[in-house]
Structures are given as structure tokens and as C-alpha cells.
Amino acid sequence: MTQERQDFLLEIGTEELPPNALKTLSVALGNELENALQAAELAYESAEVFASPRRLAVRINQCQARQSDKQVERKGPAKKAAFDDQGQPTKAAEGFARSCGLSVDQLEEMDTPKGVWLVARLTETGQPTPSLLPQMVETAVQKLPIPKRMRWGDSDVSFVRPVHWVVMLWGQEVLPVSLLGKTAGNQTYGHRFHAPGAIVLPSPRDYEVALRQQGYVEPDFAHRRARIETMVQAAAESEGGRAEIDPALLDEVTALNEWPSAVVGDFDTRFLSVPPEALISAMKGHQKYFHLLDTDGQLMAKFITITNIESRRPASVKEGNERVIRPRLSDARFFWDQDRKQPLDDFLPRLKTVVFQQKLGTLFDKVERLETLAVKVGRPLIGEGVSAAQLERAARLSKCDLMTEMVDEFPDLQGVMGRYYAQAQKEEPVVADAIESQYRPRFAGDALPDHPVGQALAIADKLDTITGIYGIGQIPKGDKDPFALRRSALGLLRIMIEKQLDLDLMALIEASLALHAQVDASRDTAQAIYEFMIGRLRAYYLDQGVTPEQFEAVRVCRPTHPLDFDHRMDAVRHFSDMEEAQSLSAANKRIANILKKVTDTLPEEVNTALFEQPEEKALFEQLDALRESVSESIAGQNYREALMRLAAIRETVDAFFDEVMVMAKDDAVKQNRLALLSQIYGLFGQVADISRLSN
């Protein structure tokens, strides 16, 4: 018999929700409700989430109307404790039967390894879904990731924002329960200005249609986002330009508007003399405007704003936004003019007033460390279009723009304005570019510094922060990483690997630790930092299709050069695809297990006079013939070639294990065979521990 199903709708109407939290809250609410339904074993067709500035909603489509009845088994006392010597039920048996709603003679016996026990087999009647939903919703709401809840009026109810209405519909039936201080009903409310009155919802299926047609609200976040993006692009094209849409800004604007409408505004072309990044930051950060680029990719003196209303006087809306942005752009132009009245060097002493970290000193102290560390990092590059003077100069000016008025007003322009100010005072182009690129990569997938000076400064800056913060014991835990050490570590490693910089990470960690006055600069600390940083590569490689086993095979060899790590990783991936890989990795695992049990010191050389069987002689000769060429490949970091050469011994190794008893009774013979196996394991181990590849 087909189970009856019904749609369920939950909507929580509020004051305007925090735009940066809206998407997260809506997804979390949907997930929590789905988890509750699954835990209650209630089937449903699908779940949809809705979110706008004044509402969070979830619709569960075709949800099972009642839990299915199920058979349950309750274990009672042991039979010997349930009946006395005369076979009469004890109080234990009677009490258990009574708790199950049965008589003792209705209980059954169950044989177990520990004896016979009484059991009650019962039919648990499923509950109607409407009776379960209120508690599910209450629990889901309480689990929402709200950092700081608020109360309003004289109520003890708390939520992210004051709640004005709640809708809970099971089909056409209202579930009139109390939630967040409101009794649930079937009435929602539309746009604050276009449709402020109540809108009756006949059923959950009518939800978004009713809001769109009667309420001037697009409740679907994704639809609203796509609609805004289309509006912005169309408006830009109508002006002969192209809108550059930042996904984060698009999300924020989507969270701010229920019924979006695009308006194009203009600003004075004289502002275009200011670096475009400053103007864009003012438009995006303060006003949530989208900027336009012309066909040459240059900033246009126009912007697009999304309004939450269909105005009867769009010209007035345009004029109002132009009036609002004008002082912001004027500030940017003033800061640009003021900051250039003095060279960047003049801002350097001011860094002494800004504490980087209490135990690590000021930003000025950090700059002094960077002057030394940047040269240390860049030393292998000196002579290839790079000089120590350029590295020192870039490091010296690296943080000066933090003290400018422009960056004080627009912090996201750190580095960017440093480049502009350096260019304005005729610094070398590579020095100016390095000031900006020191912060790259800022996020996953971000571009890396192009020039070696910028690469060296970016590595030095990140390494100084990592070693300093880690060295004073502030190790990232869980999701707490206030100095973004994980991101810095991965960015640093990406530069070394993707820009092919053959640098010794361990040596640089130790050099950086030595520059800090109040950190634990011991070898143990350096080792811990190395492990922390290399650990960031796991996700990096897994995203590229590397398996955890392949990653571990290289990691356990502890290559101190990240570029060398990458070469080994490439070789292991290639080796894993060879037909010999499975057999050889299994053989290496077998060898590793054998060698773990060896407590005696093995001979350094294999004694051919102790060979008793042709298979051990054949293996030794083949290994001896390969040794020199394999060593040459490894010395040249041609690890792929080294493993390909070693793959040739598969059949000989298989024959050895098939025919030769390693743990011979004669101790000398046994030790000789173990020494041979140790040489095999050692040769492979110079590339990676391929025993880790064995399943």
C-alpha cells in the first residue's frame, strides 16, 4: 500500500537579516530539517530552501505522512534470573513484561553465546508526521549557526533578528504551534513597500508563486542572484561597457534585495585620475555598486546599483546614488593626493607604533626581519635578473603603505597602493610589483607573484608570520587560525612548486626562527613547523587526483625541498599506473614488515658466496646492474625514470619470494638475504615508500 504523502512549508519572517549570514542560515535550516526527517525515518521527495532579507523558509516536498510501523526487540533479563527454582516468574521477569505492556507468557526466549535471555518482540506504531514536525523545527532553529543571538521587547525569545511571523503548513492544514514567540499560521508578508499586507498561502506549493505575484518578493536566492546578474550585465551593455561582477558582492547584494531593480549612475570623470582599485573599493565596499569597464578594460565613470524597489522616479534614485558616492570618491582622491606628498620611506618609522604581535614586536621589527629573510630566500635567484639590493628594497618598503591614509580607509588595498606609491616615486618596477604581490595568493586559485623578487618577498613574509606565531605556541586548532597560518603555508608552498623554485624549506624555517627574538628556535620547533606546512600539501594534491596512499608514500620520505616533493609525487603517480606497481608495492610492504622485526645490524654488503638458490643470485645481479643508472636518475631528480628502471625487477622479486626462504635456519644465509632485501627497499626508498601504495 502506498504511503500517503504531503508537502510541508516552514517560513520564519523577520527584520532584515545580516546579508553575509543569509545564505549560510538558509542552507543550515534546510540541512537540519532534512537530518531530522531522516533520523525519524520519514521519506520525502526533495527539500527546497528559500531566503530573502526578511525570511528564511524550507519546503519539504511529498513527505511521508506517518512513520511506518516497525518491529522492535527489547532484551530482558537472563532466563535463569527470570524464573525461580520452581519455574515461577520472578519480579525481574514480571517487571520487564509489564514495562513492555505484555504478560510473562507473551515473552520469548533468545539463545545467545552468554546463555538464554527473555525478549519482547513488539510492534512500534509510527507517529503522524504533523505531530513530530514542531519539535523537529524547534531543534533545527536552535542549531542554526548564529554567532550572537538577540532578544527584543520584554520577551525571553532569542534569534538572529526579531521575528514577526511564522508559517507552518502541512498541506492545507496549519500547524498552530508556537515558535520563536509567534503562533504559526498560513499568512506571509510581501515587500515592505510594494505589498506590506498579509498574503494567505493555500498550500506549500503556492509559496513562491504567491510571493512573486502578490508580494513583490523573489524568495529563491539562486533565482534572485541570477536575475540580478542578468540585470547588471544588461545595464552594462546598454552603456557600451562590461560589468565586472565579484561573486561575493553578488551574493551580498542578493541578500540585501527582495525585488531587485538595476539603476545606472555616473560620476565625474576627473575621479579617474585616482587608481581604479581605490575607486572600485569605494564603490563596492561602501555602496555595494558594480563597476563598469570599457572595451579596453579601463574603468568607466559609471556604476550600477541594485535597488530593492521599482521606483516610479528612477531618475531620482539615480541622482540620489550619485550624490552618495561623490564624497566617497572625493575622499579617495584626497587620500591619493595627500599620501603622495611624501615618499614611502617616510612612513617606515610609523610602523614602530603598530604591534604585529606582542611577543613578536612591531611591524617595523617584522620589516627588519624581512630585509634579511627575503635575501636568504632569493639568494639562489640572484644573478638571474635579481639583485640583493632589489630584495632588500622591496622588503624595506613592503609595509609602508599600511600607514597611508588610503589603506587606513580601504584596508583591502594593502600592497596595491604600495605599488602605486612606489611607482609614483620611480622605484624599480620589480620592487613596486613585489610590494603588491607579497600578499599573493590571497585565496585558493589566486594568481602567484610573477617576478622572482615578488616571489621571494611573498615567501619571506608568509614564512616570518608562520615561524613567529607557531614559535610562540599559537598553533592553529580546529577552525581557529587568526593569523591564517594554514593559508599562508599553502600559498608559500604553491609559489615554490608552481614557480619551480628549488628552495630548502627546512633551512629557511630554521633561518626564519633564528631572526625572532622571543620564540623557541629549537630543532624540534623547526621540525614541527615543517610537518605543519607539508601537511597543507595533502589537500593540494588530493584536489589534483592524488590518492592519500600516494601522498603518504612521498611524505614519509620527508623531502625538505617542496619542488623535489612535487617531482617525487609526479613519479609516484606515474608509477602507480604501471602494471608492475601492484606487485612491487606489495613486495615492498612485505620487505618492510620483515625488516621491522630485525633487531641485528645487517651486513652493508651482500656476500654472493652465501647464495644457495639461483633466484637470489638473479635478483642480486639485476639489482647490481641497475644500481648505478637508478642512482644517476635520482641524483638528477628524474624520479619517474628511476622508478621505471626499478620496475624491471618485478618478475625477479616475485620469483625470489616464491622460491627463497628468507628466514633461513643458517643465520649467515638469513642475514645475507635480509641485506639483499634491505638494498631493494633502500633503492625504492630514495624516491618514495612505495609499500604505502599496497592495498
Structure explained in plain terms:
- By secondary structure, the protein is an alpha+beta fold.
- The protein has 26 helices and 20 strands.
- Helix 23 runs antiparallel to helix 25 and helix 23 runs parallel beside helix 26.
- It is flat and about 100 Å long.
Average predicted local confidence, pLDDT? 93
> What characteristic shape results from the CA principal axes?
flat
Q: Which consecutive residue ranges, at least 5 long each, have pLDDT under 50?
A: none
Figure out the total of helices: 26
How far from one another are the termini?
A: 46 Å
Report the β-strand fraction as a percent range.
5-15%
* Structural class assignment: alpha+beta
Looking across the biggest beta sheet, what order are the strands in? 2-3-1-9-10
The gyration radius over C-alpha positions equals 35 Å
Helix content: 40-55%
Tally the beta strands. 20
Largest sheet properties? 5 strands, antiparallel
